[in-house]
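Supplementary notes (optional reading)

For those who missed the lab, this is the record we used. Protein: ABC-type amino acid transport substrate-binding protein. Length: 240 residues.
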Amino acid sequence: MKRIVFILTASLFFTHASFAETVLKFTQIKDTPDQVVGAEILKEAYKKIGISIEILIMPGKRALKESSEGRADGEVHRIFEIGENYPTLLRVPTPINYIEPSVFSKKHHFKVTSCSALKDFDIAIVRGIKHAELCVEGMKNVIVFPYITEMLKLLDADKFDLAITAKLNGLLLKKEMNMKSIYPLSPPLSRMFVYHYLHEKNKGLVSKIDDVIIKMKETGELEIIREKAIKALLEKVKSN
């Protein structure tokens, strides 16, 4: 009996040690400030269980390919539907952040009621940004860009009518790029919770990191980190 207990204890010790010695790599979409915020939250969360993380910045579509095929350990955060469409990506149940998908324009002013109300406009989205892809699904006049910065430049140049991106991303990047003519229409299309995802090879960590996120949410630490990260991003834009 003592031998069995020793083996179980040793097994648990080495499992914990193996995670502690590993640096987990999570994909983050290029030029997305909301994911910069999410990455800051994850750094603190994983630190609490003795794990270091590394952030891999890349285009949205490639990020999903790398994470879903296991070359990365998971995604910083994505919308709920990612877990339905990518079975190898395991959704950590408690959301770590939220986004407000919004419509940006330079020359149009109207109250945004739904995605379907946009069907008669030329609309731009970024490839791999799932909330935008879902919004324009079935529409004909859609232009797809690899990066949000390129999309905003051409919106500012009047190459199309509207662009869809998370409100925080659009507001911060337009300031950083000194684009004073483009603006978000109101209200946002929605407010969506976003979730951290782990590749199935790391399934043993799902409940562990979820417990940490729950405690961070209950103590208010999650929101404090979020506000601090957004403040840092705003200060960076002002100093440029």
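If you only remember one thing from this example: The chain is about 45% helix and 20% strand.
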